[in-house]
Amino acid sequence: MTDIIHVIQWCQNQIHICNSSVIIFNKLFIKTHSIILQTKFAKGKRNGGKDLNKVLKQNENDEYFHFEKDFIQFSCNILLPIEILPNSHLSDIFSSVTLYHTWQNLSIINETTIAFIFYVDFFRHDPKSVHILFLDTHPKGNLEVLWLQLFHSYIRLGHLNISSIFYKELIWSPSQAQSELDLKQSRQKAPSYFFDFRQYILEKFNIIYSRINKNFNYQNLNIFFLVRHNYIAHPRNPTGEIKRQLINENQILNELILKFQNFSSIHFTFNHFEQLSMQQQLSIIIQTDIFIGMHGASLTDVLFMKSNRALIQFATTAWQKQTHFEQMALINNINYHRCLILNGHSTTAQTIFNC
């Protein structure tokens, strides 16, 4: 079941400006038509997309642009009152738009483009026809392959070598804090289009969800243990040290293997996701009945599990109040259990087994 209340609010709370060249939806996101972006008025120290090992220790403030007046130009002379703009980065971007008179030396983009990323189903667009425009200067990440697999293409603002670009349709997505999956939303149900979007992702990686047996088979139970290894995930952690990992991991794995060998109906496996492709990760998780692992970003894959399965999250006292993955499990109809452990203790394997 999905939550459609917010979609109704989007439809009911629209502000149309400049003959609908600008449409503001519920003070969250903006759809624009016939708009010009002048890249020279986006000021920043970086262009983005660099390999992580080339930008280690870079300041996070260096990964964002400052947008000056004339960055955005419309076909009419308008002033957007601050009170009608979304309370986010979009308020800064749209606070000083200007009028264009002629189209000279322009690169024209006729296809729909989305700044950052948004649920394209709401605007009834085929994702493979949509271009993604990133407005930050973050370094290259592990999700690069995802954008190419799901959408027509993507590009970073800092990589545009054209000073003025005319967009026939440009959709500006909300900030992370206002996204439909942000923790502050405290969702009890999945947001609209969640299951459609999830299925689309699986299919693009050649995993046909409709062909997968969704019934829970107690006679053939797949338990997957997600282990965590050190790796460099962002510039502010140049050593790549992952703090939330099991200190005595090998001991725990060996003990669990021995324990599960006594159950012929259980297939116990383990792996880490840091070096696996997106397709490999999804192939593992879609066949998993019980997903277990330490608190960490890779548990986000709970969103791709078949419903009515289980997630067991290990947590120490320092992380026992975090609800990130409990909420994700909830919206995907996954049974969630938090397993409190003493990291490094000789009885940790037995504690996990009991959970």
From TrEMBL:
Keywords: Glycoprotein, Glycosyltransferase, Transferase. One of its GO terms (molecular function) is glycosyltransferase activity. Residues 204-311 form the Glycosyltransferase 61 catalytic domain. Pfam families: Glyco_transf_61. The keyword Transferase applies. It comes from the Eukaryota. InterPro entries: Glyco_transf_61_cat (IPR049625), Glycosyltransferase_61 (IPR007657). PANTHER family: GLYCOSYLTRANSFERASE (PTHR20961). This is Glycosyltransferase 61 catalytic domain-containing protein.
